[in-house]
Write a structure and sequence with these properties.
Shape: globular
Radius of gyration: 16 Å
Strand content: 25-35%
Number of strands: 8
Structural class: alpha+beta
């Protein structure tokens, strides 16, 4: 999505965010999450999208937003080969249909097309999301205790994951077979 498209669906993305938080997902918000706060949060992402620091995809069903995934791109010169998968969400009504897997594949393919060779993410330890990441080839890097509060305010550990995409590493750990750096 470009920035105007993101702004056009910010209200629907807010509904998805609220649904995800109400379901207990630890994605950076505490419950109850007000609609105003959720809409404002999505609208604030438009500048990052316009600047190329954030890519956002949405899944629609009958014209309604039912899922989203984003990639955050670091601005540091030594980090332009990687991106962070953020805010992968699927509405409760659409879970169990493979939508999360499809959104993840879209984000991974877009990362490769942008010259990204390493993806990383964090997710609440023992959350349902961990199964998705493990089953799609992500590697568990470790666990940080008491990393973030769940929506009900309880500190929970997070598990870090990474995945190499679009490139191979030679014996010295240098990336090879890249399509070129992200512009």
């Amino acid at each position: 999505m470009d920035a105007p498209q993101l702004l056009a669906v910010a209200d629907e993305l807010a509904d998805l965010l609220i649904d995800t938080v109400e379901d207990g997902a630890s994605i950076g918000f505490l419950a109850p999450l007000s609609r105003t706060a959720a809409v404002d949060w999505w609208r604030e992402r438009a500048d990052a999208v316009a600047a190329g620091h954030l890519a956002v995809w949405v899944a629609l069903r009958d014209g309604r937003v039912i899922g989203t995934a984003s990639l955050a791109f670091p601005a540091k010169p030594n980090s332009r080969h990687r991106a962070e998968l953020v805010k992968l969400m699927v509405h409760r009504e659409a879970r169990g249909e493979g939508l999360g897997r499809r959104l993840l594949a879209v984000a991974e393919d877009a990362a490769v097309a942008a010259g990204i060779t390493l993806l990383h993410l964090d997710t609440e330890t023992d959350s349902p999301a961990e199964h998705l990441y493990r089953s799609t080839g992500w590697t568990r890097a470790g666990v940080i205790p008491d990393y973030a509060a769940s929506p009900d305010g309880v500190l929970r550990p997070t598990t870090l994951y990474y995945k190499r995409v679009g490139a191979e590493a030679d014996a010295a750990g240098r990336l090879v077979a890249m399509d070129g750096p992200r512009t």
